[in-house]
Design goal:
One of its GO terms (cellular component) is plasma membrane. InterPro entries: MetI-like (IPR000515), MetI-like_sf (IPR035906). This is Nitrate ABC transporter permease. By secondary structure, this protein is an all-alpha fold. It contains ten helices and no strands. The protein folds into two domains: 32 residues; 206 residues, MetI-like fold (Orthogonal Bundle), CATH 1.10.3720.10. Helix 3 packs antiparallel against helix 8, helix 5 packs across helix 6 and helix 8 runs parallel beside helix 9. It is elongated. The relative contact order is 0.14.
């Protein structure tokens, strides 16, 4: 309770200072609206904002799940295959090195303005951290434990399921915490480039209408969405009871 109170006080003081600074220095609202104007704008457009938030949330979660599934499979394949490490891993690294914003227009060309292009953009942003986290977790297993399992006659599948997978889960969970905010960024970037709905579209629309207060309100909603989804992943990661085991 004390930590929550401290957080509330901190943000309350920050917003109050923002409000006073904008008023004192007579900053034009189209440049930097005060928090009071942002909250009024959020209430004014809240029906549309709630609908756009739902659209963006669906895009984020769908792309995130696809990135987790694909990243897990690719990470396992690269970890267990020398051929994949020599061929597939450099390809994945090269894909990660490309600027994602530059690829976003291609998503529109390939998949159109609908849901598929946002899914592809979200997937690209969130995929690589899952691959790296999976590989790092599998590589963290001590060699003597692997030899111990082999000495006991465990099959490769049993060794993976009972040793490597539990050992990799903490690192995998950390990778998910990195991937989730990136998934939100990917969805917003996709909506910036071409969309008729979603929070990214709302930000672009507000910018064209010179409604800076609505832009700030939409950006605040994006931030709250990213923080909320990160918090969910962090809570779920605490159920990974293997975290307390030193393997």
């Amino acid at each position: 309770m004390k930590r929550i109170a401290q957080t509330i006080v901190f943000w309350g003081v920050l917003l109050a200072l923002w409000e006073m600074a904008v008023t004192y220095f007579k900053v034009q609202s189209y440049l930097m609206p005060p928090p009071s104007a942002i909250f009024r704008a959020a209430w004014e457009v809240h029906p549309q904002m709630m609908a756009d938030t739902w659209v963006t949330t669906v895009e984020v979660l769908t792309g995130f799940v696809a990135a987790v599934a694909g990243g897990l499979v690719i990470g396992v394949v690269i970890s267990y295959s020398a051929l994949a490490r020599r061929t597939l891993y450099p390809l994945v690294t090269a894909l990660q090195s490309m600027p994602k914003i530059a690829l976003a227009p291609l998503m529109i060309v390939w998949f159109g303005y609908g849901f598929a292009s946002k899914l592809a953009s979200t997937f690209l942003f969130a995929f690589f951290p899952v691959v790296v986290a999976t590989m790092g977790g599998l590589a963290s297993v001590a060699r003597n434990l692997d030899e111990h399992f082999r000495a006991l006659g465990a099959s490769p599948w049993d060794t993976f399921w009972r040793l490597y997978l539990p050992a990799a889960l903490p690192a995998f969970a950390d990778g998910l915490k990195i991937a989730m905010p990136l998934a939100v960024i990917g969805a917003i970037v996709g909506e910036f480039i071409g969309s008729e709905e979603g929070l990214g579209h709302l930000i672009v629309f507000a910018s064209a209408a010179a409604r800076t207060d609505v832009m700030f309100a939409a950006i605040l909603m994006v931030t709250l969405l990213a923080v909320a989804l990160y918090w969910v992943i962090e809570r779920l990661a605490r159920f990974v009871w293997w975290r307390g085991i030193n393997v």
